[in-house]
């Protein structure tokens, strides 16, 4: 299969980010897949029973970040 990559970065309110994360988590829990639409493309990603999860937290005086990566 050819590489398909969708990358998007945008500013959102904290509550909207929480809603998006809930939607992705609910999709994963219910369907063993992640479904979303990004840049006009509907994406359905099948996810196996066991995955690798990486969390990275960076805290600085003027900016902090949380990265969540799920791979298989």
Short description:
This protein is of the alpha+beta class.
Overview of this protein structure:
The protein has 72 residues and is α+β, with helices and mostly antiparallel strands. It has one domain (14-71). The protein is 25% helix and 39% strand. The protein is built from one helix and four strands; from the N terminus they run H-E-E-E-E. It has one helix at residues 14-31, and strands at 33-38, 41-46, 52-59, 64-71. Strands 1-2 form a two-stranded antiparallel sheet. It has a two-stranded antiparallel ribbon with strand order 3-4. The radius of gyration is 14 Å and the shape is globular.
**SS strand fraction:** 35-45%
Principal-axis shape = globular
Rg result: 14 Å
Overall structural domain count:
1
Structure classification: alpha+beta
Helicity level: 25-40%
Biggest sheet, strands in spatial order? Answer: 1-2
Number of helices: 1
Q: What quaternary form is this? A: single chain
Major β-sheet profile: 2 strands, antiparallel
How would you spell out the order of helices and strands? Answer: HEEEE
Features:
72 residues, globular, two-stranded antiparallel sheet, alpha+beta, single chain, 4 strands
Write the layout of secondary structure elements.
Elements: H1 14-31, E1 33-38, E2 41-46, E3 52-59, E4 64-71
Antiparallel strand pairs: 1-2, 3-4
